Amino acid sequence: MIIASVLILAASPGSAARAQSSSQKLIAQGENQFKQSCGFCHGADATGARGPDLVRSATLAHDVNGNLIGEVIRNGRPDKGMPPLPLKADQ
Fold first, then answer.
1. Residue 47 CB: number of other CB atoms within 10 A?
2. What confidence tens digit (pLDDT) does each residue in 10-58 have?
3. In the predicted model, what is the mean pLDDT of residues 70-76?
4. Rounded CA gap, 62 and 78, in Å?
5. Nearest to 83 by CA among 55, 54, 51, 56
6. Residue 77: phi, psi to the nearest 5?
7. Can you tell me the distance from the alpha carbon of 54 to that of 45, in angstroms, rounded to the nearest whole number?
8. How many other CB atoms are there within 10 angstroms of residue 49's CB atom?
């Protein structure tokens, strides 16, 4: 009975819209976090400013769900002038 209810809710016309809305909200939050924490060096669109262009970054090209860039963000690259950023995992 519970499984049937879940399937009915998942198949309801509004469920796809809610999922898309949720994704759009997460994307907007990520964009705001990037602009606030990284944009001043990497540019608001990540194409570089004082810091390097992240759009063409080899690290990001091979990153899966933050497995590579997360360490760089947390530890920084002091030798290149990038300070560590004390962000939480969900940020």
1. 12
2. 445 565 666 678 899 999 999 999 999 999 999 999 999 999 999 999 9
3. 93
4. 22
5. 51
6. -135, 75
7. 9
8. 14
Amino acid code (one letter) for 58 = A
Among 50, 51, 70, residue whose Cα is nearest residue 60: 70
pTM reported for the whole predicted model: 0.70
User: Residues 69, 59: contact at Cβ < 8 Å?
Assistant: yes
Q: How far is CA 77 from CA 34, 43, 82, 83, 85, in A?
A: 17, 17, 5, 6, 10
Q: What is the rounded distance in angstroms from the CA atom of residue 58 to the CA atom of residue 51? A: 15
